[in-house]
Amino acid sequence: MKRISRSVGLSDSSSTAAARRAGADVVASLGMNEVPAGQAAIIITEAARNAVVYGRGGQLLMSGSSSPGQIRLDILALDRGPGITDLSRALQDGFSTGGTPGTGLGAIRRMASAFDLFSSPKGTALFARVAESAGTISPAQSLEFAGFSAPIASETVCGDSIAWHGERDRVTFLVADGLGHGFGAAEAAEEAVRIFHQEQASAPGEILARMHDALKKTRGAAAAIAELRPYSGTLTYAGVGNIAGVVLSDTLGRNLISHNGTLGHATGRIQEFKIEWPRDATLIMHSDGLQTRWDISKYPGLLGKHPAVIAGVLLRDFRRERDDVSVLVVKPAAQM
Fold it and tell me: 225: which strand partners?
């Protein structure tokens, strides 16, 4: 699987052009066909413009992936504006409070294969996905998930990485955080991703042990792997270093344990933990670029939103600006 992440700050009208250019680079790298590429360009332009005009600026994140049978680009626009007071009207063509034609949100929703947003007085998180499929059945069809990574402001590359691998009743997810930031951190995280895909026949703890050996030639990384078996309702988790994991549901709220250490340098026991995966569960994993004091209950209705929107709100409101950041959210597709 090929995966590309890109982040663009949104501050004024020139940011819209910068976002469009970055989106064109991502689409070209993914090898997306002309029609979905055009749809992505329009969505990125409108989402960036809305964040600037209505949301006082913010950030646009893109997470693209290319695997046999599917190319997908997840687009997330985050702002800290006053929020959308009448969402149903805002989604109607012709409605505008900013002097624009009022076709942006409606156009985004029509062109996206998946669309959702969450708006409050703290701002708006808008998500749209453009997907190109060869008609194959996704091995992870029972799950909906999204992940975003962004570098510290002083860097052009991100030292955090997110990856996933799916089979019919086994889907594994990785969050890796290379030590520090910049190219050295990115190299370590990329090596962790390579081993993750290479060792898919192994259990999460065994994959981490092989990562530990492979990362000795790098500056090292923190990493955690979650193995979900949605049909049998189980989650197996193993982590080393400062990767946070939590499972939330109506019947369960459980922090997932990562042991101290740095893969590639020094690590003690690598231990797996197996817990129930309820039908209404939400898995959230993130690097230490995100504070751990967030509380979803303070955002009424957010837990029912698309995983990309949940990830976006957490990233916007709880990011540590001094580090790279990555956030991954997973939910059963039946909830969507």
Answer: 174, 238
